[in-house]
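User: Predict the complex with zinc ion.
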Amino acid sequence: MKAALLYEPNTPLRVEEISYDDPQENEILVKIMATGLCHTDLHFMKGEMPVPVPVVMGHEGAGVVEKVGPGVTSVAPGDHVVMMVSFSCGKCRYCYEGRLTMCVENLPIQMMATLPGGGQRLRKGDQLLHQLFGLACFAEYAVVHERAAVKIREDAPLDVACLLGCGTTTGLGAAVNTAGVRPGDSIVIFGCGGVGLSALMGAKLAGAGRIIAVDLSDGKLEKAEELGADHVINASKEDPQAKVMELTGGGADAAIECIGNTDVIMQAFGSIHNGGKCVVAGMAPLGAVLNIAPYEFLLGKTITGSVQGEIRPFIDVPKFMDMYMEGKLPVDKLITKSYSLDEINEGFEAMERGETIRSVIRF
Ligand SMILES: [Zn+2]
Ligand SMILES: [Zn+2]
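Assistant: Here is the predicted structure with zinc ion placed in the model:
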């Protein structure tokens, strides 16, 4: 089967023939049908986040279960599934608390780029390959832990469903769960890529009174307006912080940063009123540092992270899928382009140039 491999940071992905081993205890083999291109892949590809190589990239995939290993009970061959960037073991304190995206297994899976417990099921000849986030969705087949896959309805298009594996749930959850947007709230969203526009959709669903979208691209801001932004700010033309202050009369109830840029995080924190909440959903390079005056905390301001939108994958993903199918959550509007696996580097180049919102590899 074909897969896209990273051999060294800052080199193009190489699409090569590799093979997979059979799924073992609690593992499943999934025929991947579609995978989204996410900025997080790019962070690893550019060496801004460490990952062992060679690694099969891709973590926003959806497909059909082909085969199950011993002990698998949650899915069966033929089931349609979305792969989750956040694994949840179901047995740690976070999982028991219902905070599944915070599962203690996540960090080792991310750092080692293996399946939970350290397994590697992909190989090129004799060499075992790493699997980004324990998934490896830029491949025609993936062997993953059954708890990394959420079963969804079979009439849902998989090229839309795959976005629920990372970017879309991250944005939706950042607005609905972490920012806790309530009817009438004002909210400002920094960055109108897949995560930011999903946060916008979440804010809209939660009944936000005023939604302000900030980006550097007029094209992305047009999309934000199409999805329900009340105001848009092109940060290359005007100071977003001052403009938000003016529009909201002293600051927004909540700000969501969806880029992972420390300057933008500071702008987001500076755009909320006293007592407001700033959610950082973007992934900043490892080692980046924020410079905040602690006095701001005496003004009751909150800044917080959000791991994959603090969703409960097995409940929320099927729910969001239903909402999409009923026309209440237009996730398909985020997809601007699709590529074949062979064109994958082209897709990432277009992402870096800011030309795409979400592109999808269709297998
Ligand atoms: Zn992602
Ligand atoms: Zn856990």
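Residues 88-89, 91-92, 94-95, 103-105 surround zinc ion (ligand 2) (CB under 6 Å).
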